From TrEMBL:
<dbReference type="Pfam" id="PF04299">
    <property type="entry name" value="FMN_bind_2"/>
</dbReference>
<dbReference type="InterPro" id="IPR007396">
    <property type="entry name" value="TR_PAI2-type"/>
</dbReference>
<protein>
    <submittedName>
        <fullName>PaiB family negative transcriptional regulator</fullName>
    </submittedName>
</protein>
<dbReference type="InterPro" id="IPR012349">
    <property type="entry name" value="Split_barrel_FMN-bd"/>
</dbReference>
């Protein structure tokens, strides 16, 4: 991912938090000579060796998984808030731009089988059911329902590289930064407010 130095985020704890909070990513690999992409949750975890991994699963009907055995190299893309930045918000002439947060994770993928698949599903469901009034638990599902797990391909991704971009108008002076924040708050969309809040936490 092309990222000018000024926008590179190398804060590992911040990146991990971002991946945990924005885990619905895009899994990209090459299958049968073509690039394939699937939108799925990819959960950041730590394996038994203490290494950071991503875990997930896709349907067996999705041909993308055939490529896992041909070439284990993958790219996972995660996007956070983003918003258009009008150059009319500056005190000088310039071009419009876009502020955003994104993380690209490169790694090696391997298929997992057996009880590890069920454990992976338990972790996934428990994470997203924790605030539910009547939480679903994998352990409580019938054998008939759990038969559907045979229709998925579960995997783990050993992370080899992470590239993170946090573009928050770091190239602007304090006056223009405050102008941008004020205008984003006037736009008052979920995305613009998230970027405005991010800019407040991001030093110039």
């Amino acid at each position: 991912m092309y990222t000018p130095e000024i926008y590179k985020n190398e804060n590992q704890e911040e990146i991990k938090k971002f991946l945990q909070e924005n885990s619905f990513g895009i899994l990209i690999n090459q299958t049968n000579g073509k690039l394939c992409a699937t939108h799925i949750p990819l959960e950041l975890e730590t394996n038994k060796e203490g290494k950071d991994i991503l875990s997930g699963h896709i349907s067996k009907e999705n041909p993308q998984w055939n490529g896992f055995m041909e070439n284990d190299q993958i790219l996972a893309v995660f996007s956070g808030p983003h918003s258009y930045i009008s150059s009319s918000w500056y005190d000088h002439e310039n071009v419009p731009t876009w502020n955003y947060i994104a993380v690209h994770v490169y790694g090696k993928i391997k298929i997992i089988e057996g009880e590890a698949v069920i454990e992976s599903l338990k972790k996934l469901v428990d994470k997203y059911e924790q605030n539910s009034e009547n939480p679903v638990r994998i352990e409580d599902l019938s054998q008939k329902t759990m038969m559907q797990s045979r229709g998925i391909v579960a995997f783990e991704i050993e992370i080899t590289e992470i590239q993170a971009t946090k573009k928050m108008s770091q190239n602007r002076d304090e006056k223009n930064k405050q102008n941008i924040i004020s205008e984003l708050e006037k736009v008052n969309s979920n995305q613009s407010i998230a970027i405005a809040n991010g800019m407040k936490k991001c030093p110039i």
